[in-house]
Amino acid sequence: MIDSQSAEKISRMKKLRRTLSESFGRIALKKEDSSFDEICVTKMSTRNCQGMDSVIKPLDTIPEDKKVRVQRTQSSFDPFEKPTNQVKRVHSENNACINFKTSSAGKESPKVRRHSSPSSPTSPKFGKADSYEKLEKLGEGSYATVYKGKSKVNGKLVALKVIRLQEEEGTPFTAIREASLLKGLKHANIVLLHDIIHTKETLTLVFEYVHTDLCQYMDKHPGGLNPENVKLFLFQLLRGLSYIHQRYILHRDLKPQNLLISDTGELKLADFGLARAKSVPSHTYSNEVVTLWYRPPDVLLGSTEYSTCLDMWGVGCIFVEMIQGVAAFPGMKDIQDQLERIFLVLGTPNEDTWPGVHSLPHFKPERFTQYSPKNLRQAWNKLSYVNHAEDLASELLQCFPKNRLSAQAALSHEYFSDLPPRLWELTDMSSIFTVQNVRLQPETGESMRVFGKNNSYGKGVSNSKH
């Protein structure tokens, strides 16, 4: 009789334990954000990109209910533009702007997405469409419009990226990707996503307002920037990239139009519409990423297996452009022309200089002129005017992807040796301009000021090749 009672008691306890376990499991899952930017916590190599893929944890470490398949990016380089849409573009020799088709946006019916606690129930709340006042239009694309706005909650200026939703197509995948990644990124050199507003007709991403971008800044100051400013801009770019790369996120669309510049000189990475978390369940990626002028040769040759090295090539191109005053590799025709411009400076690759290049889909040796590598100062003479600039550029602009310097290693390069040591001790959300004597210098003939009212937030200015 005792054994029977004991067995029944044990059975009830087991049943209760299962019930509690399932209940806590449901609560935990509800609290978690099931976005596709799951990241693993293995330590990343910080010297260069070699071995980067090998330290990524296998995809089976992601719980099955967390795996979200994402549509692969096609030939869409304007993050406002759907992959199948064509946008008319006008080219000028110096980073021409996109001419966007105009279309009207629907009226917004508020639906609370986030919550705040104002003192009055009738006060404006975060997460509501009527919490922001639109001041002026900054740009428009095929499915989104960017406005300069003002928060009715705290009076601060914001940028409102209003994405039009079409019932038959749903939310554009670039918008989902951008919101999913940005909400988890908190860094002084990454544009801050303040709020998300979801209505029946629109999805609005509310960003901090930043006055201009690096493309407009360079257009305002042609012929190359003040070398000290180049150093501060590059340091901030590497700082932001190091932060996202340590979280196994690739930006995949680095270009001057996607680097916002505040009136104090703070640089912020923007437009994460093409960004990808390295741990999303896809073993290969689209090779139709990165604006042509800033696209690395491995991707141009059809490689779909890449890592953070992809972004580091873009850093090298932007570095050269800031110093020299012209784009490093301004291809005017097609991918073949772009590759020829790269090989003219860095040399035509072979199996000795680039192991595995012959296996890339678009590499046909007979199609390319055989060039020998040159010193970078032969192509861009202003690199020789700045201590260690040529060496840093050469370590970033490596055709063989695994030879490119990582963002973390680049921050320790001798090029930055004359900056205050305190810069390397800052917390993620601390601006470099909080360090004494760190400030932007006047460009040639002008003092620092607000350089323009427009910025990209995913719209930007663009060259003719995408």
Model description:
The protein is 24% helix and 11% strand. With 466 residues, the chain is of the alpha+beta class. The chain has a domain at 213-434: Transferase(Phosphotransferase) domain 1 (Transferase(Phosphotransferase), domain 1, Orthogonal Bundle). The strands form 3 sheets. A 5-stranded antiparallel sheet has the order 1-2-3-5-4, with helices on one face. Strands 6-8-9 form a 3-stranded antiparallel sheet. A hairpin with a 5-residue loop joins strand 2 (144-151) and strand 3.
CATH architecture of the domain at 213-434: Orthogonal Bundle
**What is the SS-derived class?**
alpha+beta
Number of strands: 10
Write the element-wise H/E pattern from the N-terminal end onward: HEEEHEEEHHEEEEHHHHHH
The helix tally amounts to 10
Mean pLDDT: 74
Helix content: 10-25%
CATH secondary-structure class of the domain at 213-434: Mainly Alpha
C-alpha-based Rg, rounded: 24 Å
CATH topology of the domain at 213-434: Transferase(Phosphotransferase), domain 1
Largest sheet, in brief, is: 5 strands, antiparallel
Distance between the termini: 81 Å
Order of strands across the widest beta sheet?
1-2-3-5-4
